[in-house]
Amino acid sequence: MSANCDELEVSVWRGDRLSGHFEVFHVPAQDSQTILDVVSWIQQNLDATLSYRYACRVGMCGSCAMMVNGVPRWTCRTHVKKVMNGNKLEVAPLRNLPVIKDLATDMDPFFDKWIAAEGLHHPTKTRDEPIETINPDSTMRAEANAGIECINCSVCYSACDTVAGNVDYLGPAALQRAWTLFNDAKDSGQNAILEAVSGAGGCHNCHSQGSCTVFCPNELNPMKAIAELKKATTKSFFKKRV
């Protein structure tokens, strides 16, 4: 540890994924300091050109997610004292996504895979028809409810080693969204969903390592959703063969 315990040594990624590098900044240590506080202090006091993304600052939007000492985290809810190595920190852009600049990543591939997994609502009724009554205690509603708190932060996508090794893999967030809609009584896209998630980049690529579930800030369980999709697609396959 540095002799100056009131100062943090922060290595921050600068540039893009291919030609970037870590730059070291020295930041005053403060009580109840978050990683986002550290990054903001650097941008406001040391280098105004530092690029990063955030919005709500209270763990509601997920846009401030970054790699902190090699782990994907919401930086607004990650306290420095819980993650620092001695008095050192390393902050980098999320893994598995293109880097726009510094700590800001391009989220397009992440959302493109949501669409590819049919992670969009397929309505069963028009706006002119009466609203459908849903039984909140049904098994399918419980399955749907288990995934609706996903806020698209991409932490699970960044944590996934399968995504890192297979650019076509849809990823845990897209597949969890597909499972949520598959169980939604107001969604008519069950067949389209199963078709979308059973292909080359679909649910059967998952190796069940579980990083998506371990690192989800909202304590969701994408690994279980993916396992259920594997079952559903397998059943659908054999039904078609009969």
Automatic annotation (TrEMBL):
- InterPro entries registered for this protein in UniProt: 2Fe-2S_ferredoxin-like_sf (IPR036010), 2Fe-2S_ferredoxin-type (IPR001041), 2Fe2S_fd_BS (IPR006058), Beta-grasp_dom_sf (IPR012675), Helical_ferredxn (IPR009051), SDH/FRD_Iron-Sulfur (IPR050573), Succ_DH/fum_Rdtase_Fe-S (IPR004489), Succ_DH/fum_Rdtase_N (IPR025192)
Q: Which organism is it from?
A: Pseudohalocynthiibacter aestuariivivens
**Which Gene3D superfamilies did the record assign?**
3.10.20.30, Alpha-helical ferredoxin (1.10.1060.10)
Q: How does the record describe its quaternary structure?
A: Part of an enzyme complex containing four subunits: a flavoprotein, an iron-sulfur, cytochrome b-556, and a hydrophobic anchor protein.
Which cofactors, by name? Answer: [4Fe-4S] cluster; [3Fe-4S] cluster; [2Fe-2S] cluster
* Domain of life per record: Bacteria
Keyword Calcium among UniProt keywords? no
Specify the 2Fe-2S ferredoxin-type domain's residue ranges. Answer: 8-95
Supply the name of the protein.
Succinate dehydrogenase iron-sulfur subunit
The pathway where this protein functions is: Carbohydrate metabolism; tricarboxylic acid cycle; fumarate from succinate (bacterial route): step 1/1
UniProt lineage = Bacteria, Pseudomonadati, Pseudomonadota, Alphaproteobacteria, Rhodobacterales
Q: To which protein family does this belong?
A: Belongs to the succinate dehydrogenase/fumarate reductase iron-sulfur protein family.
The EC code for this enzyme is 1.3.5.1
What are the entry keywords?
4Fe-4S, Iron, Iron-sulfur, Metal-binding, Oxidoreductase
